[in-house]
Write a structure and sequence with these properties.
By secondary structure, the protein is an all-alpha fold. Helices cover 69% and strands 0% of the residues.
Length: 148
């Protein structure tokens, strides 16, 4: 994580408005359980990306994992509201459901994501945001359906 953090911070110095660099730095901070720093980076990613759904989703996850359930629920409701006007990937919803411990809803959203062939399902095997689901037999079935 130290090297990833260093490289992402260097990338941000070169291009401060790289929302992807802020997103991945936020994810790195989540992995290190540094949720305040994660949320700060994810909020910057959200700002410069003009509300990318993955940034909102990851803010919700970091909030839930830090114990701020109200903010996590707010992010979930925001994505649900936005889905009336634009495409919101179901895995963005599934991630927050997972972080909130709402496993059945997470699996329902992941089922929809797979049915819609959402590109981020190709990372199902390695993305740490799904670690809390891996021991569930339904997750192994999802992996088979994706071909992983």
């Amino acid at each position: 994580h130290d090297e990833a953090t260093h490289r992402l911070q260097a990338a941000i110095e070169l291009e401060p408005n790289s929302w992807v660099a802020h997103l991945f730095l936020g994810k790195d901070f989540i992995e290190m359980q540094q949720y305040a720093q994660a949320i700060a980076e994810l909020n910057k990613a959200r700002e410069v990306s003009h509300g990318n759904s993955e940034t909102i989703s990851m803010i919700g996850c970091a909030a839930a994992w830090s114990g701020d359930i109200a903010t996590a629920e707010k992010c979930l409701h925001e994505l649900q509201r936005l889905s009336a006007d634009r495409y919101i990937p179901d895995d963005s919803l599934a991630a927050i459901y997972t972080a909130l411990g709402r496993t059945d809803e997470a699996f329902a959203a992941l089922d929809r994501a797979i049915a819609r062939k959402e590109v981020r399902m190709s990372f199902l095997k390695v993305d740490p945001k799904w670690d809390r689901l891996r021991s569930d037999a339904r997750f192994r079935e999802l992996m088979k359906r994706v071909g992983l």
